[in-house]
Fold TonB-dependent receptor.
Amino acid sequence: MSNSTKPIIFIGYSPFLAVKSSRFFFILLVALFTKITTRAQTEVKLSGDYLNTSLKEVILKIESETAYQIYFIDEWVSNDSISVSFQNLELVDALNKILEETTLNYYVKEDEKRIFLLENTIVYDELPRGFFGREENSSNPNNVAVRTNAPPPTFYNENTRKTKRKYAVARVGKSDPNNLRETYNLKGRAINARTGEAVQDLAIRIKGSSIITVTNESGNYELELPAGYNVISVRAMGIAASEREVIMYNDGSLDLVLEEGLQQLDEVVVEADAAKNVEEAITGSEQIDSEESKNIPLVLGERDILQVAKALPGISSAGEGATGLNVRGGKTDQNLVLLDDAVIYNPQHFFGIFQALNPFTTKGVDIYKGAIPVEFGGRLSSVFDIRTKNGNVEEIAGEGSIGPVTGNLALELPLKKDHSSLVIGARGAYADWILRSLDDESLNNSNASFFDGIMKYHNKINDNNEVKATAYYSRDAFSITSDSLYNYSNRLFSTRWDHRFNEKTTGALVLGNSNYGFGIDFDGEANTDFNLDYSINETELKYKLRTILNDKNALDYGISAKYYSVNPGSIQPNGNESNISSIFIDDEQAIEGALYLGDEIKLSDKLLVDLGVRYAFFAALGSGTQRTYQDGLPRNESTVQDTISYGRGEVIETYGGPEARVSARYLFTPDFSIKASFNNSYQFLHTLSNNTTVSPIDTWKLSDLNIKPQTGYQASLGLYKNFKENEYEVSLEGYYKLMDNVLDFKTGADLFLNENVETEVLQGDGKAYGVEFLLKKNKGRLNGWLGYTYSRSLYRFASEFSEERVNNGEFFPSNFDKPHDVSLIANYRFTRRYSVSANFVYQTGRPVTYPIGTFRFNNADFVAFSNRNEFRIPDFFRLDLGVNIEGNHKKQKLAHSFVTISVYNVLGRNNPYSVFFVTEDGEVKALQSSIFAIPIPSITYNFKF
């Protein structure tokens, strides 16, 4: 029979009765239960084996096997399942086993063969020890009043409440007669109900007392509450003030899911990390929020955080329309670009004009160009740690845009309220008309397109576990000539499990896979049609932890392992009539690993030191063949000494060593500091390119027997100052960098589909140094920043052999050496809806090699070239303007809109992309090509719901 009943009133350390009771009244009530034992004396023995069985089903089965009737409220047991097994246990022992992992207790009334299930609470059939404020025993013969730790019983009546409750009463813990205390610990996490993100700096106070705590950056809190009934109130900027009724039976947890709220303030602004630039120990770090690109006029109105990054000191590119970024004099391959912990090899579309990231799914990027955190490695110059948004866990939300070149849409879909969500983003281009409008007749019949898609799953399982998974794919296809179709693509997947072990230690297990590849399909008039392809794939497993030892020490430590697989390229005939011969270059494999340990040490309120050591390891693996060359002679076909074959998985060569991460900050005042740092790194992966700027068909090459890893050492020193309550930021930072084994190429080198590429490349020394200045205004109608960089980037290839020596072994400017770089970003807001913005860029022209004469030899004309990169193309400068119009701010709208009207290159400056030379009528002529030689207007409509 069903034994669910109406609620029954019990007495004990629990809220069941609302009476302003005297002790006498309590004694009368307790007398009703006098002389009732709480342990069954029956000889009944029970056995059971239950797997994911409904708790209600288990209870009813026990009732059917005994002479007892069990009383409970149906909702207490209907939604729980248990897995338990026991043999020949007495009734009370079986009940203890079954209810062990629940919040239910029980009370046995033996004389009536009844069992009452109780939620959280317990029932006592005698007065608690010390109830009258005294304790009588042999050690207290005079009956002196002695206070005990047992709290007084709690009485609470739901029916006496006159006002409607917004939140249900929270009952925490499970009463244990062996653990009765005056106070219990409550912990949990504060969560934004709309976004699912943590609410930090939330003030939680016990009403009627001075006890208060504040949530940390992860939204976690811990509070000690009196046993029984409590009311806690919560307050935070942007969060609706609320109160929660909490009844403490024992230690337990309670997550606070909070609604957003608006509050009218009189000139009060609360900021998080407002002085982070001054206070943190790391040098050369920058942080860009995706929203920052909203009001910056960019080419064709497309939001682009990587273009915004190029406006910061120390970050540039080789030229307009060049893919890749050069950071502090480093090559484009020296940047580690991560998207949700997985490497993205080419994060740009359409020759570098657009980023390959959906701006509406991208949350922001952390850039490290000075002191790189100890968990990162494998690159010499910088880390771009790009993060995507977590989805809305409350309701469907979305954002999109329609522009002259691209269409973009992102959706946030809640899967389980307050816990899990899915973000989906898609983006496509209709860009053919751009190529036809460029200042180059050869491009008039060209076509180009690209698209990218991203999906992110986020699930907060509980207070201690959180799972994220991201999948991403992008593809570009373009045809510059009528007979060739080029394509390149990025694909990545990552999954991350964050786990909190305790209040001091958190960890993350990360698995990621990345793939980059390109291809060329040639279909010409002759019988030379072919298909060409290249790809690189890597898989990484990383486990990282953070332990806050005390107020002065925070440890970061972990391990990572990575596996590379490279297809160096292949070419195959396209069609049966093609005369092209198939070529396949042997695949390359390697493993890369690292162990690291870092400690952020707070030596005093003024001095903060970040110390770290990382050990990097690399092994090139077979199968494959490697050549050896004669010592003391240049590498070429005539100096080959031997060819060694390696089996699959056999170690070809190993490299590695320790890497230091040291940085320190000293605060002169709360808004003025000095910082210094030093770090060294190994890079085992290289790009092979003999183009002036990086292109989509550059190949990546692993270190092996003949190509050594690059190494770098960087020291930096800077001053940081904030003014007017962090309204203005000013920084001045200098750096000096040395590099070994950087790659370049021999004149006329053939790099692609060359199985002995080591004979075409050079490895030498590099150095880079500079000073970076940044003035930033964060508040007010006018905001933005002014950045200036003076920097040099120099290479030297000083081999003893002339064919492997460049510029007589002297240092010469790299292809991206630009001594002066000025950027100005400004936005002026007239009202909440209307604003104007400007973007000004000036850069020294990049180096170039010019022909300086001709000579005749054996009845043939030859051109004599200058030293490499001895001259420079004209300086670059550009001005962009934009007008931003927001829709009205009515809350009840289907969608909120935002319109951007911008003009890229307002002055029509004919900035050179490249300078090249042709011979006409016996004369050598210099020609210049430009990407955007005219003003490019655009209008983009953005919407959000």
Q: What stands out?
A: The chain has three domains: 1-160, 180-258, 277-944. Residues 55-65 form the longest helix (11 residues).
